[in-house]
Amino acid sequence: MTHSSSIPSIKLLIDGQFVESTTTQWRDVVNPATQQVLARVPFATEAEMHAAVASAREAFKSWRRTPIGARARIFLRYQQLIREHLKELAAILSAEQGKTLADAEGDVLRGLEVVEHAAGIGNLQLGELANNVAAGVDTYTLLQPLGVCAGITPFNFPAMIPLWMFPMAIATGNTFVLKPSEQDPMVTMRLVELALEAGIPPGVLNVVHGGAEAVNLLCDHPDIKAISFVGSTRVGSHVYQRASQAGKRVQCMMGAKNHAIVLPDAHKEQTLANLAGAAFGAAGQRCMAISVAILVGAARAWLPELVEKARTLKVGAGSEPGTDVGPLISRTARERVEGLIARGAAEGAELLLDGRHPQVSGYADGNFVGPTLFSGVTADMSIYREEIFGPVLCVMQAETLDEAIAIVNANPHGNGTALFTRSGAAARHFQEEIDVGQVGINVPIPVPVPIFSFTGSRASKLGDLGPYGKQVVQFYTQTKTVTARWFDENEVGGPVNTTITLK
Ligand code: NAD
Question: Which is catalytic among the residues 149, 252, 287, 394?
């Protein structure tokens, strides 16, 4: 690819310096509403990748000993800087990703919550102590950092997901190599600049750019101890296998098919508004988007109103006031979603609302697909089996709550689900019987706040521990258990274990 020199280039961050890559391989970062090239992103060379890991490895030697209060204070400053730059961050994000400005602010704010949590690391990275496990013997645990950790992020939350990763990894005493999505790395880089301004020392956070080759190198690199990945199931399964084989701790948060079940006793207006927002907001490019609605019993009669609600949403550029549904990230993504809509119709689903090729005045080149709604969807159809990752809602029907639960539990994915009802008994039954890791009750997108953890399950997740919250403190640390005995000057002691049995 040849480039005009007026297009800014995205830098690598190695050892505290933002540097221009020496690579010959570049990719354009494109505004998905206009196709304007905003920047070019390098695919880092092998030498640059190794330099980033080496810098993180060197920095770990001192960072692991940094007092917990000093680490916490960096994140206190960082959360303040993110707050001060919220509008700027949202504008960068919206331009490169396509989200509305309100959604872009939400993307930053959800990540900010993790930074706030990282500022409380003093209360999180605590061991346990049992006094007198034998006479004069105490056992206690230390939660020690692992070393160099790496994070690989997707395009759909370019602020929140990097912030799921490096703040908690660094707050727990690790050093980090981040590989952002090559489709929209600009807001991530601005967040990284602010992290350095907040006081993260050289080498503690490094950033490399690239695609499959960069990711494979991180998976194989012997100096990297843990990898956190968020992205598609196809890539996540590969990363999990490759990095596990190389002996690393790995967590992969992956694709989804999230169902909402609607009972006839639900609050109708609220439910329909929630469904429309959760299915079509952010153009359906959320791993927790509702992509299947199961209308139960008399709620089946609500279908025409749901279609009308979807029809009223405004498709447009994220920067335009009043937009509900922005563009898809790329032309390729748009063509893929349009292809799946065509397949849904060909496989016999009823296309009640076709969002292909909407007219968006002033943005003829945008990657737009409007809200699309199918009914009569069955489990064997492509639109049900594949994650569409666009503004497409599949509607199914069931006679009873148990029948609907059986449909959800038979789907391999387990990222999120929601039930709409006014019945506490139905909600309790659902909560107990549903086999999905994140459950909403009259809450369509139940992403837990960072005092909990993100707990997608089954095919949506590989690895035991989630990417933020309490679980990630475990993920980024090794528990060391110390059993200690101290002798007084004149004490005559026996072996520890005989002491236990004799008393
Ligand atoms: P993706 O899998 O295409 O890309 C994710 C990362 O992997 C990127 O950094 C990319 O550069 C890299 N990558 C791409 N191809 C690769 C390959 N062949 N080998 C190694 N690395 C490769 O995902 P995406 O399209 O950027 O993001 C959307 C996907 O992410 C959806 O499936 C969505 O459900 C999922 N997602 C999941 C969660 C979650 O928490 N479960 C959150 C957000 C997004």
Answer: 287
